[in-house]
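#struct-pred
JK: can someone run the complex with pyridoxal-5'-phosphate? inputs below
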Amino acid sequence: MLIQGYPDPGEGLRLHLNENTGGCSPRVIEAIRRLKPTDISTYPSYPSLVLTIAKYFDVDPEWVLLTNGLDEGILMAAIGHISKARIHDAETIVPTPAFDPYPNSTAAAGATSVRVPANPDLSFPTDAVIEAITPRTRMIFLNTPNNPTGQLISIRDLCRISEAAGDAIVLIDEAYIEFGGESFLPQLSRYPNVLVGRTFSKAYGLAGMRVGIVIGQPPALQPVRDVTLPFNINVIALYAVEAALEDTEFLPRYAAQVNESRDMLYAACRRLGLEYWESAANYVLVRVGETAPFMRALSARRIHVRDRSKDPSTPGCVRITAGMVEHTTAAIEALESVVATRQAR
Ligand SMILES: Cc1ncc(COP(=O)(O)O)c(C=O)c1O
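RT: done, structure tokens with the ligand placed:
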């Protein structure tokens, strides 16, 4: 039954949405327990967390906009920059395979997305993206590491595209940057047309809290701020993020688990003869062939992964979250038994 939101696969190990499989920092739970009744009865106040985040990411506080998950940041960026431009044939550029909210937010803002497929080896098509830029282009969505391929876009290529973008806004989605690659943030002062998106959902383990950040200079950020609702983050989430940032050991510990899990998944794919792509993120894209029976067989073993076969660039592929090593071990056991059953037929 689908009432609201993303379909729930039910009981089992959730390796389908790239969540943190180890849960959040215990400090987050402690901070939530300390909430007072008047914290809940009053509207949230954002300056304290904005200042903390600006210091943490070493950017001007005026460049920071908290959003209800980066999902909301993507939608508000599209609405702020596309609807306000009031041109009837506005376009966005969406390199594919891509995270669904880019084309969806483009459509919600009344524009058309121009898809630029990845290179055959799934590396990023920098020249093709630059060639696709026209006077109609209002936004360019770049995602590094890419969901679902795990491939990176080099800083040099991000700079080239941002320079070629002209009046268009470049949104660099760094949802998974804590797991690999280099952030664009140190370059941001040179690019008034660039927004960087970050999230607390993945590495920090706060997906249920829904907190993202859009960071950019005022010319890029103000139109997004203008359309964002004033109380978009709830007070519990504010406390949760403050506490998560205080736990400085949490992130490196989890990143080490992800690193080991990725290596385990690569090794398993090699043993099983499955094609895979080395990933800079907390998931690995694997080509399994016909995905539907494969996903059903894994689900029957209570392991849930994401079918990515619909995208023309990734036929026959599933995406598997690489989280805590104990969870990856369970996933690999199930993977091996599904492949063995398939071969026995
Ligand atoms: C590439 C990418 N960007 C943004 C998000 C959104 O993250 P959230 O809305 O949970 O902050 C996700 C979540 O899966 C993602 O994969």
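RT: quick notes.
The chain has a mean pLDDT of 96.
The CA atoms of residues 308 and 314 lie 6 Å apart.
JK: thanks, will look after standup
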